[in-house]
Specification:
The chain has about 240 residues and is α/β, with parallel strands linked by helices. The chain has nine helices and eleven strands. The protein is globular. It starts with a helix and ends with a strand.
Length: about 240
């Protein structure tokens, strides 16, 4: 698959305080067909986001001032659903989990191969597009309704904020409602690698907080021991 053919319409915002890395990433992604906008810190990223709507973001965690985790949390609190790939010099499991808990959709430890970054960005874009391209019928989850065509969850109080990763996961579970899906199957369907399976557990936990009356006693999103997860819509 040609990078230009696949990515020429995709706008990516790269946020990193390391000028050399920022320049290299911008050049590499542009060579593979992305339209690239860069920012050197959170404040500059906010200024960019006021005038553009990127399809995906690359965001460094370890920036001076407002760091990447804080910016991610702020964007999610403001209902931004742009997929975010977090970069960090720390790659311990607890750091990955912190990134996903903040609302990140993927996580890549430095140093990394530019090719891997490219593949992960393409996967994030595919996951986002898949939600809109293959929508099931609206899914009822008690008082909530999930519209997969828009990736929106609504209820009596209005729209319930979902990240891009949460919307993609809920869309995949909705497409196979009543069927237990393994973590491996979910990761493959969402274009994630095997190392991201722990991220699925984190996303499931976050989803339960939003769709379940009591996340400790699920009514809709169940764990099937030894098999994975199953979504059972209902009123």
């Amino acid at each position: 698959m040609s990078g230009v053919a696949a990515d020429e319409e995709v706008l990516v915002l790269v946020v990193d305080d390391d000028q050399r890395l920022r320049t290299l990433l911008a050049r590499y992604l542009a060579e593979h067909g992305f339209r690239v906008v860069t920012a050197e810190n959170a404040a500059e990223a906010r200024a960019r986001l006021a005038v553009i709507e990127p399809e995906v973001m690359v965001l460094d965690i370890g920036m001076p001032g407002e760091d990447g985790l804080s910016l991610t949390q702020s964007l999610r609190a403001g209902r931004a659903r742009v997929p975010i790939l977090l970069l960090t010099a720390r790659g311990a499991p607890e750091d990955r989990i912190a990134g996903f808990e903040a609302g990140g959709d993927d996580y890549l430890a430095k140093p990394f191969e530019p090719r891997e970054l490219l593949l992960r960005l393409r996967a994030l874009v595919r996951r986002t597009n898949q939600v809109a391209a293959e929508p099931p019928a609206n899914v009822r989850l008690g008082p909530l309704t999930f519209d997969a065509a828009r990736g929106e969850l609504t209820g009596p109080g209005g729209t319930v904020r979902l990240t891009g990763g949460e919307a993609a996961l809920l869309g995949e579970l909705a497409r196979h409602a009543g069927e237990a899906l393994s973590r491996e199957a979910i990761a493959a369907a969402l274009g994630m690698d095997e190392a991201s399976e722990r991220a699925i557990d984190v996303q499931v936990t976050r989803l339960r907080r939003k769709i379940e009356p009591d996340p400790r006693e699920p009514r809709f999103l169940f764990t099937v021991r030894g098999r994975g997860y199953v979504l059972k819509p209902g009123t």
